[in-house]
Amino acid sequence: MTRTSPGPTLGVVGGGQLGRMMGEAAAPLGVELVVADPTPDCPASPVVRDQLVGGFEDEETFRDLAERADVLTFEIELADPDVLERVAEETDTPVHPKPETLRTIQDKLVQKRRLSEAGVPVPDFRAVETADELREACEELGYPAMLKARTGGYDGRGNVPVSGPEDVEAAIDDVAGPAMVEEMIDFERELAVMGCRGDDERDAFPVTETIHEEEILRESVAPARASEAVQERAREVALDVLDAMDGRGVFGIELFQTSDDEILLNEIAPRPHNSGHWTIEGCHTSQFEQHVRAVMGLPLGSTEQRDPTVSTNVLGDVDERQSAALYGDEAVFATDRAHLHWYGKHEVYELRKMGHVTMTGERDVDELLTDVRELRDGLTFRE
């Protein structure tokens, strides 16, 4: 690809924090970004060439985006794959990952069936729509179990634990739509692998340990505090997942390490993922640069890790929605090898992801984790 100014253009459906960090990574490569997002002045807008304001199912917006781009991608699963596919064909603009991959991943039941058929190890699961079906499935899978909305859930939304028969009715009412139920996994830890598919190559970033609370990712630890054998098995499963996907890009692959050290697939995101944010400082190529390279048809960059790295999310700690103002960040800037990433969201509310802090260093990850938690705990949106 010849370097020119302006350079080739990547059209991105979605302009949240992932689009923002993708724009930051694309600029040094000479790749321009145009994003489409329904929120005016979205988080990505200050760092990209332009924003088109339109919904994630708006065909006119998608067409305008395609006409300005050499390649299309997406940073949010709410993008309509049917509209993407139609616009891509009409404008002869390639989409990566492929809309079919997005279509598969949007429905958790379809996703699980597809991966299970491909030989990827997954928790036992059942499709359910009614309380009677859920009750019958839980009798087979055992209590407790996890009920998941088939579409639309993220950050724990749409996931409802079912501890016993007395929870069945309320769980079905809470999900309020087609669902699937999975066996509850007795896991040792949760892991994540950012897998990468290029034109004729595939790779994976180092295995990451992910720490969740209330089903929201709080911290990432790389390398994971797991044995080499467990990490190698996690990488193998991630590469098998990539073989079942269609199109180029980075895929966030969430895994369980069970109590007997088996690896089971939890879920897939067909895009850069929160669990890979640490790669910005922690690897020679970040997950965002890698995604841009992959979808634009460039060779993949090195996924080699520089130093042990930990990352913690900065979440909203206010009771009511309000204008975003972060206090206490002086300590982050005063700490060597600590890096604040601010997402540029105008409003904050409880548990909203507003940024993250990363720390790197040639020392034990437990020490790094203690230090980054101390920095995070000094940050607040309360005056």
Automatic annotation (TrEMBL):
ATP binds at residues 108, 148, 182-185, 190, 212, 266-267. Its EC number is 6.3.4.18. Coiled coil: none annotated. Pfam families: ATP-grasp, PurK_C, RS_preATP-grasp-like. GO terms for biological process: 'de novo' IMP biosynthetic process. NCBIfam families: PRK06019.1-5, PRK06019.1-6, purK. Belongs to the PurK/PurT family. Homodimer. This is N5-carboxyaminoimidazole ribonucleotide synthase. It comes from Haloarcula limicola. The gene is purK.
